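Practice record 12: protein with fe (ii) ion.
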Amino acid sequence: MKPAEKFLAVCTDDLEWEDGTRVIGLPPGVEVKIVAEGSDGVSERVDKFVRFPAGYTEPLHIHDHLHSTLVIEGEMHVHGKILKPGDFVFGGPGEQHGPFHYPVGCTVFSCSRAEKMNQIHRNPQSERGTDLTKGY
Ligand SMILES: [Fe+2]
């Protein structure tokens, strides 16, 4: 991972949405816009927008990084709560969380950190495999 920028100002409309299945390993339909990433000598980081289409479900998952996630558009239904713009989710490293439901669609801003970043999401209950993009 390249060194992190010390200062960055970004017009996010200039950035392209990418296939979230390829970038973060979630089931098809999700899109990701990476704003900043890099290593600062303490940790690696990826700061990004994630856009979920209406009706999408992000399955129960686990990953090695932590993330701080802010809802900025739409709704995230999780753990008995309906989160709206301004609401927040923290996912700790190695801690399973979800499923997250997005009945009306949702865009979040999510900052991920780890000593060594691996953004691929895994299913902690799988006996057949760990690849969420293939439904298991
Ligand atoms: Fe997560």
